[in-house]
Amino acid sequence: MRFVHTADWQLGMTRHFLNDEAQPRYSAARRDVVAAIGPLAAEVGAEFVVVAGDVFEDNHLAPRVISQSLEAMRRIGVPVYLLPGNHDPLDAGSVYTSALFLAEKPDNVVVLDRAGVHPVRPGLEIVAAPWRSKAPTSDLVGDVLAGLTADGVTRIVVGHGGVDVFQPDRDKASFIRLAAVEDALARGAVHYVALGDKHSRTEVGGTGRVWYSGAPEVTNYDHVEGDPGHVLVVDLDEADPDRTVTVTARKLGTWRFLSLRHTVDTSRDVTDLDLNLDLLPDKDRTVVQLGLNGTLTVTDKAALDACLDKHARRFAALSVWDSQTDVVVVPADGEFDDLGIGGFAASAVDELVATAKGEDERSEDARAALALLLRLVDRGAA
Predict the structure, then answer these.
(1) DSSP type of residue 163
(2) pLDDT in tens, 94-146
(3) What pLDDT is recorded for position 298?
(4) 326-329 and 317-320 as β-strands: parallel, antiparallel, unpaired?
(5) Which residues form the Calcineurin-like phosphoesterase domain (predicted)?
(6) What are the residues whose beta carbons fall under 8 Å from the beta carbon of 92, sequence distance 6 or more?
(7) How many whole angstroms separate alpha carbon 175 and alpha carbon 166?
């Protein structure tokens, strides 16, 4: 038996750093990656798809988001089992009980709306642990595992949330206890545990049967989210008494969120940064935040600003990573001697240069004024 394990679609997600042009394309990519599970399922012969929580970004979505999301799920073709997670719990305002969702839900979509066993077919069950609020008071996965025994039925657990072994505060009541999961696996009560919440593909423990699939499309920068963009194809041998499991990752995501660091101490460093950004592919689907460190002259800082302005127009988004950026601007001796101005204007420039060498707020204003002056005389173009 073969199925697809995915999670954390978070349909309807927005990202504040995307501009008005890029955000609709990113939203469309998140729907497209859901629809792309259909051809993959057909290719590998998957019997069904499980979505381990956070199908939607939240319970309060525009009608268009719900309708377009359901249409993407329809295109998958095979049965799709949706688990409510912390973003879209089964609370009083749940999207899953809304009139629009119920009216337009495709026949192949099944909401795992109660804790416990959901029969798929004879000999195969899904054991679901849906969220009913954003703050559960117990280990929801552990709750549904209690009492299950090895009785010849193949069982796939679908859960959502943090596993205790990854958490600094392991005693939080809602964390999934890995020991309880591995105990249920060891006694043959369940055979695979499909988890959501962690957006990077991650194996949990050493059994090879507990996995986070990660989000199928990137949601955060790569220093936070190391391995997104996948779904997992899970093979489970029902003819084997041990229910041997093989997990294969398939890349479906098409966007990248990159965190880059670069030292800028000279004009050559600025040129190198410009070339490196030029070489990055798929700029319309790439978001970059830059951590910049170094000491630049006013002229070189103006060139850096021009470089960033140029690439901000080319990428889906490009911004300075404030917490990782420390660029000091220091006017160089003679830097403004050849501007071709004299008299009062030259004296004003000399005064700005002297002020810019300080370390107070007036110094920052003076450096900004000098950078603007360079741009106006076309010396800061990249």
Answers:
(1) B
(2) 999 999 999 999 999 999 999 999 999 999 999 999 999 999 999 999 999 99
(3) 82
(4) unpaired
(5) 1-163
(6) none
(7) 10
Distance from C-alpha of 182 to C-alpha of 184, rounded to nearest angstrom = 5
Do strands 286-296 and 256-263 pair parallel, antiparallel, or not at all (unpaired)? Answer: parallel
Indicate left, alpha or beta for 13 from its phi (over 0: left) and psi (-120 to 50: alpha).
beta
Judge contact between 266 and 301, C-beta under 8 A.
no
Per residue in 244-295, pLDDT (tens digit) is 999 999 999 999 999 999 999 999 999 999 999 999 999 999 999 999 999 8
Please state, as a whole number, how many other Cβ atoms lie within 10 Å of the Cβ of residue 360.
9
Alpha carbons 138 and 195: distance in angstroms, whole number? 16
Buried b (16+ CB within 10 A) or exposed e, 22-61: bbeebbebbbbbbebbbebbeeeebebbbbbbbbbbbbeb
Spatial distance between the Cα atoms of 183 and 239, rounded to a whole number of angstroms? 22
